[in-house]
């Protein structure tokens, strides 16, 4: 039997995770830039609140959602991606490269995969992946224990340096 307090905490965590998932799925990369920029601006603030309150339970959902969003962005033309560069980089800065302690390997794998999708967006849009992001990725890689995560991060850092 699960104690009532633990059950309530789990429901709350699941609710925050579902909120993050929903907000990221609702972002429409094919929307006009002004609309997409507003969607991202409003969603990011709500997602940040959910991450703080939902904790580690929200991390995997966040990274899955970001990867999915950036993969949808890849369907756009290079011109459309460039037009929305500031919105995409704001999303990456505030959520993907957010400073958080990720202890579960599955979540670190998902983060690395999401960063890889973002790097592909930068490459397709021919805009620079900020040197601070490359430095962050190299820091994650240096501290990483998992060979799988290290491999993905090394590949992504290489793409970002070459593309930038």
Automatic annotation (TrEMBL):
An example Pfam family from this entry, by short name, is ARM_ECM29_C
Q: Which domain of life is it from?
A: Eukaryota
Name used for this protein in its record: Uncharacterized protein
């Amino acid at each position: 039997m699960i104690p009532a307090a633990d059950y309530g905490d789990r429901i709350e965590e699941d609710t925050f995770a579902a909120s993050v998932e929903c907000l990221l799925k609702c972002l429409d990369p094919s929307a006009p830039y002004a609309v997409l920029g507003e969607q991202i601006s409003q969603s990011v603030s709500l997602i940040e609140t959910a991450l703080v309150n939902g904790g580690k339970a929200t991390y995997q959902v966040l990274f899955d959602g970001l990867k999915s969003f950036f993969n949808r962005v890849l369907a756009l033309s290079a011109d459309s991606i460039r037009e929305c560069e500031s919105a995409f980089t704001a999303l990456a800065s505030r959520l993907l490269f957010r400073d958080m302690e990720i202890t579960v390997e599955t979540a670190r794998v998902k983060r690395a995969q999401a960063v890889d999708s973002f790097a592909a967006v930068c490459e397709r849009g021919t805009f620079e992946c900020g040197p601070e992001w490359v430095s962050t990725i190299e820091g994650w890689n240096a501290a990483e224990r998992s060979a799988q995560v290290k491999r993905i991060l090394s590949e992504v850092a290489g793409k970002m340096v070459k593309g930038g």
